[in-house]
Amino acid sequence: MITNTYFTKDSVAFGEYYGLRLLSWDYPKDKNIKSLVDQNALYPITCLTTLDGKQKQKLLEKNVF
Length: 65
Known about the structure:
By secondary structure, the protein is mostly helical. Helix content is about 40%, strand content about 0%. The protein has helices at about 10-15, 35-40, 55-60. The longest helix has 9 residues, at about 10-15. About 0% of the residues are buried. The model has no long low-confidence stretch (mean pLDDT about 90).
């Protein structure tokens, strides 16, 4: 199960009990979304501060995410 937000303690306990693979912004501790994004430098173009709105829109129109 994947979420781009957070799991509650209860949802982590439930998932671990039933053998679910969980991935969230901060779970699991060493291979969570935040660390994977940072390690691989995979940032969405919408967070690039060096591009103006027009440049971002042009990239989005070309399906560059």
